[in-house]
From TrEMBL:
Keyword Transmembrane part of the UniProt annotation: yes
Keywords, alphabetical: Membrane, Transmembrane, Transmembrane helix
Official protein name in the record: AzlD domain-containing protein
Species of the source: Haloferax litoreum
Domain of life, per lineage: Archaea
InterPro entries: Brnchd-chn_aa_trnsp_AzlD (IPR008407)
């Protein structure tokens, strides 16, 4: 796809993004290489990272399936997500959660 940017600008952006990414990752290696133990406040904050990342990935796909917020029963992803969350809450098993969520989504999408 042609753009209005010249090749120098595009390559400049790619190089700067690469250097910044390398610097951010390198700073963590340098920082955690210099300290022997992670402070308790940082450890407790890092415990919430997986849940925050999961929520950031999943909630937009469930709540905004076609570009607009859909909180109705017509949103099959929302219904499947709620049932999967209930299954996860009661069973605490990943496999059961996936089966309930995907099973519900498939039934609502292909049967109903």
């Amino acid at each position: 796809m042609p753009t209005s940017y010249d090749a120098t600008t595009v390559w400049g952006v790619i190089v700067v993004a690469g250097v910044l990414t390398f610097a951010i990752r390198g700073s963590f290696v340098y920082l955690f290489g210099r300290i022997d133990e992670i402070p308790p406040q940082v450890q407790s904050a890092l415990e919430y990272v997986p849940a925050a990342v999961f929520a950031a990935l999943v909630f937009p796909a469930i709540l905004v399936p076609e570009g607009a917020v859909s909180l109705s029963l017509g949103n099959e992803r929302l219904v499947a997500g709620v049932l999967a969350a209930i299954a996860a809450w009661y069973t605490e098993r990943v496999f059961v959660t996936i089966v309930v969520g995907m099973g519900t989504l498939w039934v609502l999408r292909f049967v109903v």
